[in-house]
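Figure-free illustration: sequence to structure, shown twice.
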Amino acid sequence: DTRYPGTYTGYDDSWDFTKFQNNFRIKIIRREEREIEFDMIGIDTPFANAFRRILLAEVPTMAIEEVFMYNNTSVIQDEVLCHRLGLLPINVDPRLFEKL
């Protein structure tokens, strides 16, 4: 199995900070007022995934939290419909709702 460090005989693929500093770079593909697209080059998948998770955690988001169902006549159960509503991405500035 070659997914783990040390699986190739005679090859040292352990993590090295100096090697990381020399090889890692970020290439900006597109930059707009509210969006940026970039490539991270010379980084292992676990580190790239950790960086992605950090960025996602720092982006302000909004979601539907409470749903009051009065008369659901659809074939979808109330709980399933409410859960699906909570999964909808809402494109709005959350700062506009800070005082609510």
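We now fold a second protein in the same way, so the two outputs can be compared directly.
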Amino acid sequence: MDNIEFAKGRGTFPCDISVLEVHQDLDWNPKVTTLNVWPLYICDDGAVIFYRDKTEQLMDLTEEQRSGLLKKESSRLQKLGHRVNYSPRKEKALKIYLDSGPSKDSSQD
């Protein structure tokens, strides 16, 4: 247990994070004593926890290996339909009508 490090993923399951970013972008081994305090706070369903062996060294990737991983991740994300960069629909204003408001005099229209 002494060699295990952990980090909370961003968002809830499925937590889409690149395998190339996971070791740098997450807060590994946050100094917390309970599960319900920041930055851990894993009391909600769907929380994703990553773990790793701190004695294992990270492998140095060649550019070819890195581009191969990026290609695999890209196709995986496209299959899942995640990571939409923009919305093709334009937002519309929301109108709220209250029945209890003053009635409009129809003779003025």
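Summary for the second example: The CA atoms of residues 98 and 104 lie 12 Å apart.
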